[in-house]
Amino acid sequence: MMRYYPNLLGDDRDMAHDAIVRQLEIVGEAANRRDPETKMKAPEIDWYKIAGFRNIAIHEYFRVNQSIVEGIVSNYLPPLREAVERIVDNRN
């Protein structure tokens, strides 16, 4: 979705922003609920910050602007995705 995000305008951009923030809230909640053993399998991931962003998104929503969301999606989601895929692959 982020690849199309910069091209959206007005209400579409607002709706995309809200949808992305909601998905980041879900990721943050999932990160918060992971057991310590699972988190230790990906020590390069700052699980505390992921859960912290979730708390900000839920409780201080108006602090979460477009540039913050774009930065998270561009810089932090790719390594998180790789780590989660690695953890899942190693379970099977």
Polypeptide structure, described:
Helices cover 74% and strands 0% of the residues. The chain has 92 residues and is mainly α. The protein has one domain.
Key phrases:
single chain; 92 residues; mainly alpha; 4 helices; 74% helix
Helix/strand order: HHHH
Overall spatial form: elongated
Distance between the termini: 29 Å
* Low-confidence sequence ranges: none
Q: In summary, what is this structure?
A:
It is built from four helices and no strands. Helix 1 packs across helix 3.
Topology summary:
Blueprint: H1 10-33, H2 36-40, H3 47-59, H4 66-91
Helix pairs in contact: 1-3
